[in-house]
Amino acid sequence: MSSDSLERLDRLVQTMRARSGVDTEPSKVLRAALELGLSALEKKKEVDSP
Predict the structure, then answer these.
(1) Burial (CB count <10 Å: 0-12, 13-18, 19+), residue 42
(2) Number of structural domains, the chain?
(3) Exposure string (b/e) for 1-38, b if CB count within 10 Å is 16 or more?
(4) Domain range holding 26?
């Protein structure tokens, strides 16, 4: 995964923490799901771009 995607993932996680008021690491399952979603979006972008 590109570093840009990891930065976006980290920002998303931080935003979720701030909204929920939870200051702990997200579960591994949630993080894995977010990473899968981001990688799927990146693949879709590659397919969509000429």
Answers:
(1) middle
(2) 1
(3) eeeeeeeebeeeeeeeeeeeeeeeebeeeeeeebeeeb
(4) 3-48
pTM for this prediction: 0.40
Spans of the chain below 70 pLDDT: 1, 21-26, 50
Tokens of 28: 């591994």
* Residue 47, amino acid: V
**E strand or H helix at 12:** helix 3-20
DSSP SS3 for 8: helix
